[in-house]
Request: fold
Amino acid sequence: MQQSHIFLFASTLFLACRTEHNPNDDATPPSVVVEDTKPSAKESPKPVDPQWLLKSIQEERKELRRLMRPGTRTMVYPAPTDVKYVNPSALCSECDVILITVCSLRKDAVGLYQNQKNVTPYLNSVAKGGFYFDKAYATSNFTLGGLSSVLTGRFGISTGVTDIEKGLPKDVFTLPQILSYYGYQTAAFTIEAGSGFRPEHGLDRGFLRMEISPPPRNTPDGRWLDSISPPAFEGDGASAQPVADWLAYQPADKPLFAMFHTRTAHYPFIISQDEKPNDTTGMTEALWMVGRTRVDASQDSRARSGFGKGDEQSGGLKDPIQTLVQEKGQPAIDVLHEHYRSSVKRMDKDIKAVIEAQRSRGRLDKTMWVIVADHGESLYDHKELLHGGTFYETVINIPLIIKIPGLRGQEKSISSLVSQVDILPTVLDAVGAVSPANIDGTSILPLLQGKTDTIRKMTLAAGGAAPPKGELPGAIISPPWALLIHEGNCDDTQNRRLQRKNDQNSRCLYNLEQNPAQNIIFTDEEPEKVKELDNVWKYFVHTRSKKGLSVDLDPTFVQELRRAGYDFR
Reply:
């Protein structure tokens, strides 16, 4: 394929830019539309001076330290002084926006996708009257990568956030940052854990308030708190209590944007040793003990993909869960799945708490909802225990639910291809704001309004928790084809091994229509398709790569990440 053809293919199928690419765009702020006075529905929005906006944002707060440390905290930042107004003729002008991101949520664990009303009933209730997507894809296989894309509308390659040691560059704008300039009260909530949703990576940018609370006792991260300290919150939906409390004190006459990142369904999934007392496989006890032994990380804090690949950890330490799976086989895997699904049911109570908080405010019918996973979970599918090492469907094909007041939903899932990068422009489009120029996402709103059947023909995922040893791993999704580019061999029932260079990742081509289980590779049978998708991948990496802000990991935080399921060498 000639380079000009590659450019046309990539630009046509990938980029959702509203302006032509400028080589200096990395230093150019977004064309956020603001106005001096509240406009009438007939008036055209006027763009703000980009240099004024950039200066205002830079002066908004002092630069945070980029040494990543664990700990609970509440951060409050001043609101912009020159507030502008959204377009009043927009579909959801003055709507509240609630974004709930769920850590490690597989699509097949959500009742909505399995036609099971009693599974995740509160998540299902948001989809009632809304929309849910069958081909929604995460942009990476780890939390930081996915959330960065949700908040910026850019793939990890375009922000430089391709591993946990990278943060958002200063000139990349975020959804809360833009909404705050339109007068929105913005706030973010999560719990203290080995998570990628932290201010050191720049993900607090634009939030006027960010709370990192102690993990409740009835969560996997807080399951040992009985012997450490009294929990700050208890009971069903306890992780969501901080956001519910904040919502209760917000005036109903001013729009807000609240983001809640829940880890209630995160590894190791259990909250008690007694969850399955008759477990003969030993899996329940092994999950309870995950992270119980602290590992000294003071010598080297470089990130390494943890239990994701399901193999031996760095330093020759054998992962006990992996060992158990190898010894006990399918019965142990079944118990692992059972505990995971129980954790998803508990997570659903978090969503209930947020719904009830909005109901109490009287704003339920004036709220735009977005519920999305940061990534999925392997649970030993394709021999991967958790996530972070591969890009199979169980990890990157994720649940996405959108509900917008004034827009009639549908009962069936939407089969059109969408990505996490499409969330930012969709929210801004719905509330009457304008997206930054040269982002990778495009608004899903025309699709939901029936104006089009397709908003993109291709999407990608890239990176991983650990900095790559060589070539950047990733995936190109162009239905029905999926080209996975990762270390190690491809999952194939015939155990075929592809020829590759020492410094190059495997190219695993799957046909998602013919083989949705992704255990038959088509790499040898479809060399032209591999070449076509690989050329698009390489071109995108070459033309859109950005250097992320370096983030040093404090040794105590490395220990916390290890306890959460990541290994560090």
In short: The longest strand covers residues 96-102. The first helix runs from residue 3 to 13.
